[in-house]
């Protein structure tokens, strides 16, 4: 019995320790304990402390230990007082926060002050201090989560620069089709010299104080875990809800229709720049502000916060790069490649250490894959132009869909000149323009991109020449070529393409469509005007020639009012040029022969001819009745 009693204090201590561990486990199991349960746990701890202190009174305490115990009890009381308080320590004010951290310091001091050889009463206080420290750490962990959630801030999209894109062009297996001109606003990430505040700067010192306290007390891992969890959730919320980036699997991307994928690729490019150039640098800055004093902890926390979101972005890009390339994807691929190429330095700066090397390598690998896809798509674009054959002549001799598509698409490409020059630098291509130098020659005119653009248009010209041969009417063939070459020149002259095609190319192609104008006038009007040339014919022959001229003019009118010259300026020029030749010749003929022919044999007056010529090339569904224009 005496032997059992001698062991009782030790057994009792074990019971108290076990109780403390149970309470600690209950607290750690859920940070959102109900108020009643929290009070119950606090009461239990108070009772346990009373039992120990009663036992302590049996032993005479020295003055130094009594002082330590008193300071500890005051500190413990202040810590436990927060158990029933649902507000944050931050909300209570700076003074209360200082008192809480001072109490935590007192408890930590008690724990640090004990030696391995401590007697039983010291061990009891040590156990109580351990429990109090656990309670304080759980409180700080909850405080950390509450403060970070309540005071988080998003990147202000108004700080992003805005640029415009040109046309949106689509392609299908049957023909090239161009949509109407439209401006697409794309947000570009601005410089991140000044990081955005993702958490209210006023609460950062408080969060840093929590970090300092938890790391000092050996709870750094708990701090890091809570901090990573809250900040990772904030990043995901920003990307998937604020920026509306969808979570898509590789299968989703591979099976998606182009119309849907086009928008997703555009969104990805925008989101990638915002995340890597603004959000992640700001996140890294926040980590450094709070954890910069703890060696590599700041870096590892930043990588853990970033990796899931970053990998989801990379996975989308990887899936897109796996799709078969099609010409309509060129601009989107260029945009995605350019975005990755531009941010590689940013990514290297974000993840310079071994901890984040897997993200750095993944970004570089994606950029390489997108470069290969973009180059392949660019070459496929040219092949698609070359293989676009027609079996029937284009109605009305207007601007072919292929011409519209190609030229409108080329207008988009100067936006990506740096990317294209880099991608095309080592690809040889035939170029009809000989390189020359001089003050007025821009270097861009003979860049890799310029050579390839001219080569593409040369392929387009060959295709148009083949399509022109399908016209049975030679005059309409020249109208078709005139329309399409004029359209190409106007697109080059009126856009950034001018800096790549050069003035010599423009001059050559202006001359080419002007030759088609001349060829049209010769093939259409030479035979008609030959009927009213000067001669000493008899009255009957003159009347016959006047009648034949009217019939020939009727045929031209009926055909060519259905032809199309879409450009109003070109159409007016053609009206004027034709009118000068035809009306002048007809007026001379009538001036010399009207009296001999007789008024009733003259089908049209000069004014009639002049007015009717204005109807040509208007692409009318049916010609105006010629009876209304005849002299009666």
Written account of the structure:
The protein is mainly alpha-helical. It folds into 4 domains: 2-150, no CATH class; 157-374, no CATH class; 395-524, no CATH class; 533-629, no CATH class. The chain has helices at residues 2-29, 35-56, 63-81, 89-92, 94-113, 120-150, 204-216, 220-242, 250-255, 258-291, 297-322, 330-350, 357-386, 401-412, 417-424, 448-468, 474-493, 498-529, 539-560, 568-597, 606-613, and strands at 161-165, 169-171, 176-178, 184-188. Helix 14 (401-412) packs antiparallel against helix 16. It starts with a helix and ends in a 19-residue tail after the last helix. Mean pLDDT is 82; it is low at 1-13, 50-61, 161-193 and 628-632. One of its GO terms (cellular component) is exocyst. Component of the exocyst complex.
Q: How many domains?
A: 4
Rg measurement, Å: 42 Å
- N- to C-terminal separation? 147 Å
Number of separate helices: 21
Mean pLDDT: 82
- Kindly name the structural category: mainly alpha
Overall strand count:
4
Q: Write down the secondary-structure element order.
A: HHHHHHEEEEHHHHHHHHHHHHHHH
**What portion of residues belong to β-strands?**
under 5%
The helix content, as a percent range, equals 55-70%
Strand order of the largest sheet: 1-4
Overall geometry: rod-shaped
Function: Component of the exocyst complex.
GO cellular component, one term: exocyst
Keywords: Exocytosis, Protein transport, Transport
Domain Exocyst complex subunit Exo70 C-terminal: 267-615
């Amino acid at each position: 019995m005496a032997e059992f009693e001698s062991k009782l204090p030790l057994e009792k201590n074990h019971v108290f320790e076990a109780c403390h561990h149970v309470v600690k486990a209950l607290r750690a199991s859920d940070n959102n304990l109900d108020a009643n349960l929290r009070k119950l746990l606090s009461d239990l701890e108070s009772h346990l402390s009373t039992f120990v202190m009663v036992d302590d009174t049996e032993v005479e305490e020295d003055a130094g230990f009594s002082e330590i115990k008193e300071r500890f009890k005051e500190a413990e009381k202040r810590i436990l007082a927060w158990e029933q308080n649902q507000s944050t320590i931050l909300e209570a004010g700076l003074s209360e926060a200082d008192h809480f951290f001072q109490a935590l310091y007192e408890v930590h001091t008690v724990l640090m002050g004990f030696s391995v050889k401590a007697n039983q009463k010291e061990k009891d206080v040590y156990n109580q201090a351990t429990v109090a420290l656990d309670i304080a750490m759980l409180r700080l962990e909850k405080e950390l989560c509450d403060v970070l959630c309540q005071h988080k801030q998003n990147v202000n999209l108004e700080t992003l620069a805005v640029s415009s894109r040109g046309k949106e062009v689509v392609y299908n297996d049957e023909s090239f089709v161009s949509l109407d001109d439209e401006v697409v606003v794309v947000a570009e990430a601005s410089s991140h010299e000044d990081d955005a505040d993702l958490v209210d700067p006023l609460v950062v010192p408080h969060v840093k104080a929590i970090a300092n306290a938890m790391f000092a007390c050996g709870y750094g891992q708990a701090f890091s875990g809570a901090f990573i969890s809250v900040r990772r959730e904030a990043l995901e919320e920003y990307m998937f809800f604020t920026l509306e980036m969808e979570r898509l699997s590789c299968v989703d991307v591979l099976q998606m229709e182009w119309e849907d994928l086009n928008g997703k690729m555009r969104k990805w490019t925008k989101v990638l720049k915002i995340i890597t150039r603004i959000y992640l640098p700001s996140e890294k800055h926040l980590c450094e502000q709070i954890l910069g004093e703890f060696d590599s902890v700041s870096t590892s926390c930043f990588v853990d916060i970033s990796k899931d979101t970053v990998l989801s972005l990379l996975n989308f890009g990887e899936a897109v790069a796996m799709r078969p390339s099609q010409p309509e994807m060129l601009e989107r691929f260029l945009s995605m490649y350019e975005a990755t190429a531009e941010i590689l330095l940013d990514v290297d700066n974000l993840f310079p250490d071994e901890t984040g090397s897997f993200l750095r390598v993944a970004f570089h690998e994606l950029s390489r894959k997108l470069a290969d896809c973009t180059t392949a798509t660019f070459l496929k674009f040219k092949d698609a132009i070359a293989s676009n054959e027609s079996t029937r002549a284009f109605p009305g001799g207007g601007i072919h869909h292929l011409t519209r598509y190609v030229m409108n698409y080329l207008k988009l490409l100067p936006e990506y000149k740096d990317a294209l020059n880099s991608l095309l630098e080592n690809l040889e291509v035939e170029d009809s323009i000989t390189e020359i130098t001089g003050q007025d020659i821009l270097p861009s005119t003979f860049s890799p991109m310029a050579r390839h653009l001219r080569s593409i248009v040369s392929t387009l010209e060959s295709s148009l020449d083949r399509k022109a041969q399908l016209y049975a009417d030679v005059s309409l063939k020249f109208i078709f070529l005139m329309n399409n070459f004029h359209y190409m020149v106007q697109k080059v002259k009126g856009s950034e393409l001018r800096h790549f095609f050069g003035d010599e190319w423009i001059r050559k192609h202006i001359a080419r469509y002007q030759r088609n104008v001349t060829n049209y006038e010769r093939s259409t009007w030479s035979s008609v005007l030959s009927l009213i040339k000067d001669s000493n014919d008899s009255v009957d022959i003159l009347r016959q020639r006047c009648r034949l001229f009217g019939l020939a003019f009727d045929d031209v009118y009926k055909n060519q009012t259905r032809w199309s010259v879409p450009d109003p300026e070109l159409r007016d020029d053609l009206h004027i040029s034709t009118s000068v030749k035809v009306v002048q010749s007809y007026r001379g003929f009538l001036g010399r022969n009207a009296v001999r022919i007789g008024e009733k044999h003259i089908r049209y007056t000069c004014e009639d001819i002049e007015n009717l010529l204005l109807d040509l090339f208007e692409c009318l569904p049916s010609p105006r009745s010629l009876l209304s224009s005849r002299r009666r």
